[in-house]
Amino acid sequence: MGNTCSTTWLANHCLNSSRTSLQSEDENNLSKNMIESTIIPACDKHTATIIFLHGLGDVGGSWYDAFKTCRIIKSMPHVKFIFPTAPVRKVTLNMGMPMTSWFDILGLEQDVKEDQEGIEKSSIFLNNLIEEEIQNGISPECIIIGGFSMGGAIALHAALTSSYTLGGVIALSTWLPLSTTFPQALVSGDKKINLPILQCHGDEDPLVQLKWARLTEQRIKAMGFKQYAFREYKNMGHASCDREMKDVSSFILQHLSELIFLHGLDDVGKTWLDEFNAFDIPKSIPYVKFIFPTASIMKISKNNGESMTSWFDVYGFDQNVKEDQESIEKASQLLNSYVEEEIKNGISPERIIIGGFSMGGAVALHTALTSPHTLGGVLALSTWLPLLGTFPKALVAGDKKINLPILHCHGNKDTIIHINWARLSEESFKGMGFKHYIFKEYDGMDHTNWNQEMKDILVFIEQSLPKQD
């Protein structure tokens, strides 16, 4: 993941250099008695930001400690973390005692009057932080906001009132405030429908009771959010637990791990989406985002000029037949543009796997070997290495590509891409010196995929993109 930086460096950098006062009273009326905010800058190139708000009577540094203990910060060197601290104010629920609070609390039941003015001011403050990150070059889709208890309430309100669709919301032991101010259902074209939300709650929470959280769940589902998840934790009170923090980490990593897979000739991306779903691969690794592009339609020489979806023209299925170098390179550039887009959106190259079936696998192999990045891995199914003569006989010893994991799968009864062709590709990869190249041959398999192959694919993904608890 690029440069490695230790937790000690993060802590020292934060405490000595990166604690900043929040905005002035003229900007958002929140700075009276404001305590400093804890900010952990990205160790690597800054491409994503997480902003997390604490609960009543707490400070931002407490949640920095929680995220650090669970290794969330260390595992994401390109992410900037912001843990603001609320201003000190008198809280009615606590007999007017002054404490850090994002808004006043009059009671702990859902029918108690809410401090609408205070909630909206804190929501505006959080949206101002979001706006600052966007002005600094971070895409809204690469910004996740969240919070615990009242902090989570502000995060939910800010996400639903923001003019942007963010990368996600982490709502811990909380509720949706001012719920009647939101529509009963979002319109179908509203991009907010795609906002990922993780709501977590303990079944023994004595402060924000579980039934209150379940009302929020009903409300958010009724509005039509497609990527909303509710997690309930047995025996957990108004606190956090290890299992919850692991779920938070997985939720963040859903947008920080990627697999891009290209179909074969005369096919579409959805075919392979269905295939992966049939074997529960996305369900088994929920922290990985899957992309299945579909090729454009072109005339195929091998099929008498018939038009069909294809990544490049095909003159024949034999290693001695001329290859469509121009189109192969264009398709490779297209796949690399997908990779670059994901990197721009905050994904580390080492957390991206590319792959494909047949000609799609050929494009994936070519892309991986010509990319300026060393990726997380390549899935090459029933395929071959195209334009073989354009690659060196052996990579130089210092070339990082040597460490690229490659899983090459082929059936020994393949009548389209003969097993001998695949074996020539195997010899080439081994000759170039790839240390993590694996060739798997399936007895009796034709130009298709098998159960065992899909199981091997899942193992490869889990090993190449391990869950980072």
TrEMBL record:
<keyword id="KW-0719">Serine esterase</keyword>
<dbReference type="GO" id="GO:0005634">
    <property type="term" value="C:nucleus"/>
</dbReference>
<feature type="domain" description="Phospholipase/carboxylesterase/thioesterase">
    <location>
        <begin position="38"/>
        <end position="255"/>
    </location>
</feature>
<protein>
    <recommendedName>
        <fullName>palmitoyl-protein hydrolase</fullName>
        <ecNumber>3.1.2.22</ecNumber>
    </recommendedName>
</protein>
<dbReference type="GO" id="GO:0006631">
    <property type="term" value="P:fatty acid metabolic process"/>
</dbReference>
<comment type="function">
    <text>Hydrolyzes fatty acids from S-acylated cysteine residues in proteins with a strong preference for palmitoylated G-alpha proteins over other acyl substrates. Mediates the deacylation of G-alpha proteins such as GPA1 in vivo, but has weak or no activity toward palmitoylated Ras proteins. Has weak lysophospholipase activity in vitro; however such activity may not exist in vivo.</text>
</comment>
<dbReference type="GO" id="GO:0005737">
    <property type="term" value="C:cytoplasm"/>
</dbReference>
<dbReference type="Pfam" id="PF02230">
    <property type="entry name" value="Abhydrolase_2"/>
</dbReference>
<dbReference type="GO" id="GO:0008474">
    <property type="term" value="F:palmitoyl-(protein) hydrolase activity"/>
</dbReference>
<dbReference type="GO" id="GO:0052689">
    <property type="term" value="F:carboxylic ester hydrolase activity"/>
</dbReference>
<feature type="domain" description="Phospholipase/carboxylesterase/thioesterase">
    <location>
        <begin position="258"/>
        <end position="463"/>
    </location>
</feature>
<dbReference type="InterPro" id="IPR003140">
    <property type="entry name" value="PLipase/COase/thioEstase"/>
</dbReference>
<dbReference type="InterPro" id="IPR029058">
    <property type="entry name" value="AB_hydrolase_fold"/>
</dbReference>
<keyword id="KW-0378">Hydrolase</keyword>
<keyword id="KW-0276">Fatty acid metabolism</keyword>
<keyword id="KW-0963">Cytoplasm</keyword>
<keyword id="KW-0539">Nucleus</keyword>
<keyword id="KW-0443">Lipid metabolism</keyword>
<comment type="similarity">
    <text>Belongs to the AB hydrolase superfamily. AB hydrolase 2 family.</text>
</comment>
<dbReference type="InterPro" id="IPR050565">
    <property type="entry name" value="LYPA1-2/EST-like"/>
</dbReference>
